[in-house]
Predict the structure.
Amino acid sequence: MDLDLICLSLKKGSEALALQTAAQKNAALEAVAVALDKNRAQIIEANKIDIENGRKNGMSESLIDRLALDDKRIDGIISSLRIVIGQTDPVGEEIAGWKTPNGLSIRQVRVPLGVVSIIYESRPNVTVDVFCLAYKSGNAILLRGSASAYNSNKAIVSIIKDALAKTDGGIPGAIELVEVREHDHSDVDQILNAVGKIDVVLPRGGKKLIQNVVQNARVPVIETGSGVCHLFVDETADLEMAAKIAENAKIQRPSVCNAIECILVHKSITEKFIPKLVQTFDGRVKIHADENAMTICKNACSDQVSSNLIVPATEQDYGNEYLDYECCLKIVENVDEAISYINAHNTKHSESIITESRQNAKLFQAKVDASCVYVNASTRFTDGGEFGFGAEIGISTQKLHARGPMGIKVLTTTKYLIEGDGQIR
């Protein structure tokens, strides 16, 4: 990979984008939406190759689900793109403005970051999400997807670049895809050390990927987090609601970062809630239960199949991201122990409490250290689309610059524009 040449092209693309109006960028993005719709068969065919290769390589079906594209998901991708088109262009927005006593006029305005790189795993929908957010906010984007999704990503980027090239004012040089080779991560090292060529890099994927980027990058990083999310069922919880939310947060799509990996239950409701939870899961989820929950779980099983899915939890289960039809189950003394446990084992992503106690809800939201803290709702809502952003760059779990689902404004910084009439100091 000739990173110098790629970054030079992207730099020129970002400079051209910085001069474009919102109308020009929107017209280019609309052309991309039309092209993705028109060429969806090409995308799905490429995606089938990735799925076949994934199954040959032993990829789990939950991860295959992350990788898979169909007409419905492409519809969703296009819909998200059009939401971004409808959003206000953040570039040029005046954050603040004032005059100094000596007559200088100072304005703080939003500007693009420049050249952004994202290193991400699977999920080819991310390719379109990050492209449209970067393009709308005036940034060029370098995409480094995983080998498992390379055929899908290559087809999508080819369609995007072709659409931009055919659009008056479109800038195809604002997006590039790294050619990925199986088991070769030398290109990642180049990206992480591209000081002066790449303005910021974002990792989006599992714990190992994120740690590699954070620990080895010499360029600025906006850290996204793996998702070790918890659901705490308080003693005052509506148990029907709790079971329904647990089912949604664990089973609807277990391979994503906002799915729960651990359920905490207040000790006073274990005999009522745990059997309801086991029955709700109905043999669909392998439960790693702590010692106090094991017997209750086993007694609630309707058959041997379900019983075989109840196993003792080990220390490795606490804080583990399963990304599959598995979760940890632990009994806690009270809300304070639940909060302490969560803060010791989570990844600062998304946490939820099910409670009818306003006091416990306020305590939980105040003390839990995470980017998104829910009361009586599923963690599955931690998503740029659900938050009204259309698409997202990822879920930031750090505390500087951005936190939580990252929409269009996260890809901007600010500069000060100062005007005078001959002032000297």
Notes: Residues 116 and 141 are 5 Å apart (CA to CA). The two ends are 49 Å apart (CA to CA).
